[in-house]
Write a structure and sequence with these properties.
This protein has 5 helices and 4 strands, in the order βαααββαβα. α2 packs across α4. The chain is globular. It is about 60% helix and about 5% strand. The chain is mainly alpha-helical. A two-stranded antiparallel ribbon has the order 1-4. β2 and β3 form a beta hairpin. The longest helix is centred in the N-terminal third of the chain and has 28 residues.
Length: about 160
Amino acid sequence: MMESAEPLCLLHRLYIYAIHGYVCEVLFTAFYDFIALRDWRFRGVSSVWALFIYGVAMLGVEHMYLALRLHCGFILRSLLYTIWVYLCEFSSGWLLKRLGACPWDYSHFKYNFKGLITLEYAPFWLIGCIMLEKVLIWHTLRLRLDGNWEPELGSLMMD
């Protein structure tokens, strides 16, 4: 029974958000290269830095959701999330660029700012933020651990 089940701690939620963002980025880059270059290899790319960036950015969106869900409409929240994502991308990119470690460069896009962000991705970020609130955050906040880490014998046996 799960009488004492607690919500996931901050570290567990950070892990879920980081992995989700990382996988989405790899899938997005593979699909983007397929559309733009007809690259049938579907080689998505990312950086280890993305784990931390996505985890922190999505935790920020989670906190915004909890604070704003009763005070702002869905459209306004989605726009605020998108602005937050751009702030996270720019600030992390700026820091990584100073360290010589920034894995992305948008300077070839028409509407880029310092090569660190580009408005061409705004529709994708907006859709991603909508999905983040409606699917990932919604379900992640409802996950519980019951504290029983011992698997039952029946669940280990295959029929």
